């Protein structure tokens, strides 16, 4: 089997810390003359088995993770399902599985890496195993990010979720190294937008929504084109909404008489919203005409 340089993680969102791990793995592989750099993603999150009530919200789809990990240097992105059997394996069993499946020459991780049943394995144990089995262990330091309020945080999926829950999409972009993207599919809504002359794409989202509010974004269509968009997230208080929605009004896009975008079916097509800036909270307008004004 071809030897590899391996890094493990959830890689949810693929933030700047994740990218640093993969870049370090790619550089070490090049130094050793190896072509195989494997990013192993736990999918779904291990808490889906261990603590289903505490599963964190999802920041990225499988497709997005592949798309973002490859430019960082991963030649392979493998998704590892955290089955009860795998999670019950002790650190030594996990490392035996890793050596049999991935044949690592180098394992690249951050200082907080844990593995095996009860997260009993740590970097010290990994180095000891590497010394016995003949693989190298590289530790990559955490990546710090300065936010808009000048506070400094360590890049993590958790901090990104917290920023999104506060509507701080510009700061989330600093942690990710690019705008946060809401991935979803356009579905039928109640068509109020098109009745008022402002057709919107009602989106069934696959990834975490930022806090309720109105945002400036770029909408990425299936053909790769990007269009400015005004995105409304929440319960639409002007219409006494009770259902949480994500709606995007695309600016400058040519629409057919019925409201569909030219060249696309009315519903069922994928869309990605690159969230750029929070504009305002949701506001309840007294009437539809005042909303239009």
Description:
With 293 residues, this protein is α/β, with parallel strands linked by helices. Helix content is 29%, strand content 28%. It has 10 helices and 13 strands. It has a 6-stranded antiparallel barrel with strand order 8-9-12-11-10-13. A 5-stranded parallel sheet has the order 3-2-1-4-5, sandwiched between helices. α7 packs antiparallel against α8 (169-176). The protein is elongated and about 70 Å long.
Write the layout of secondary structure elements.
Elements lengths: L3 E6 L6 H17 L4 E6 L4 H4 L11 H11 L3 E5 L3 H5 L2 H12 L1 E7 L12 H11 L2 E5 L3 E3 L5 E3 L2 H9 L3 H8 L3 E8 L4 H4 L5 E5 L7 E8 L5 E9 L10 E6 L19 E11 L7 H5 L1
Helix pairs in contact: 7-8
Task: Summarize this entry quickly.
It contains ten helices and 13 strands.
The H/E string reads EHEHHEHHEHEEEHHEHEEEEEH
Secondary-structure content class? alpha/beta
Could you tell me how far the N terminus lies from the C terminus, measured between alpha carbons in angstroms?
Answer: 66 Å
Largest β sheet strand count, sense and barrel closure: 6 strands, antiparallel, barrel
Helical percent range? 25-40%
Radius of gyration: 22 Å
How large a portion of the residues is in β-strands, by DSSP E? 25-35%
Strand order, main sheet: write it out.
8-9-12-11-10-13
Low-pLDDT stretches are: 193-197, 287-293
- The count of strands amounts to 13
What is the overall pLDDT average?
Answer: 89
Summed up, the helix count is 10
* Dominant shape: elongated
